[in-house]
Request: fold
Amino acid sequence: MPVAVIMQRRALQSRWQSETWEPFGLVLNHATPGEPSLLVEEGGIAQWLHPGFELELFRDEVEGYYLNVSSNEPRVFVMWRMEDEVAVPQFVTVSYNEAGRLMDGGELVDTVPMAPEVMAWVGGYVEEHYRPEPKRRVRPQSFRQPGDRGNVESIGNGRRKRNVS
Reply:
């Protein structure tokens, strides 16, 4: 699904920071690539349209999509970087897990609300492809019969010691 990202710059009344950048929204089905363009600039707010992004769904990310669409407020995650004092989006995803990996790697990731059209598209994909892995209880070693615990030997005081090979 082709999208464009709207990034917003807001002026702040702070002695530490004069402005802040954040993703403001998405324009769906915006397939026209091109340079960023200024949409609005008034009252300390500027919004820039960054075209050329693609929301894609992959089977190995389906659990992350499920976690997102089953939440109270499904979101679209926008990874962005500062380049020459301007915030530039780099990547767009709807997977919680993928966004988490990006943040773990030190990237800036913010969210925008997920549009109903995107929700329907991702929800349909999740219904078709997501199968939760069955939970398996791992039985602790102490509850297994001594012969089933692996390679162990007695160490004289009634305790057992595992042989390490």
Summary: The chain has a mean pLDDT of 86. Helices lie at 62-69, 96-104, 116-129. The chain is about 20% helix and 40% strand. Residues 116-129 form the longest helix (14 residues).
